[in-house]
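SAMPLE LOG
Freezer: B-3
Tube label: C17
Construct: single chain, 51 aa
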Amino acid sequence: MDITWINYLVGMLVSIAAWFIFLWAIRDGQFRETEETARRMLENEGREEGS
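STRUCTURE (predicted):
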């Protein structure tokens, strides 16, 4: 029975840690303008081909 509680607590701690990392990433702007990088890459390829 003890190992069940240990597994439960470890799982909860890992879940809470993942949640806080996710919230930090949102506040830090990691998910802002995710498509911008792809557009820049395509624009750079167009410039290289046009040279």
